[in-house]
Automatic annotation (TrEMBL):
One cellular-component annotation, GO: HU-DNA complex
Full protein name: DNA-binding protein
UniProt GO BP: chromosome condensation; DNA replication initiation; gene expression
Organism, scientific name: Butyrivibrio proteoclasticus (strain ATCC 51982 / DSM 14932 / B316) (Clostridium proteoclasticum)
Family: Belongs to the bacterial histone-like protein family.
InterPro entries reported for this sequence: Hist_DNA-bd, Histone-like_DNA-bd_CS, IHF-like_DNA-bd_dom_sf
Keyword match DNA-binding: yes
Length: 94
C-alpha cells in the first residue's frame, strides 16, 4: 500500500474527504518525524512505538570492488510493533 492508497482507505473508513485524510496523514508523519529528530519517541498503545537507535561505526565492503569501507555511526529510526498489532498479524486476535 502506498501513500495514495492509504489516504483513500482512511477516507473510506472515516468518511473524511481525501483532502482531509491526506492532511491527517501528512500531519501524523510530520509530528513523528519532528519527535524522532529530537531523539524522542511516539508510543501508540496496542500499535507500536516509533523511536531512534544509535548504530555504531563499522567496516563494510564495497560490493563492486570488495574494498573495505568505513561506515560512520548514525542515529536511525526504528519501529517496534505492539502486542495487539503482533497478535492481529499472526491471527491470534479473538
Amino acid at each position: 500500500m502506498n501513500k495514495t492508497e492509504l489516504v483513500e482507505a482512511i477516507a473510506k473508513q472515516t468518511g473524511l474527504t481525501k483532502a482531509a485524510s491526506e492532511k491527517a496523514v501528512k500531519a501524523f508523519t510530520d509530528v513523528v518525524t519532528k519527535e524522532l529528530k529530537k531523539k524522542g519517541k511516539v508510543q501508540l498503545v496496542g500499535f507500536g512505538t516509533f523511536e531512534t537507535a544509535k548504530r555504531a561505526a563499522r567496516t563494510g565492503k564495497n560490493p563492486q570492488t570488495g574494498a573495505a569501507i568505513k561506515i560512520p555511526a548514525a542515529t536511525v529510526p526504528k519501529f517496534k510493533a505492539g502486542k495487539a498489532l503482533k497478535d492481529t498479524v499472526n491471527g491470534n486476535k479473538k
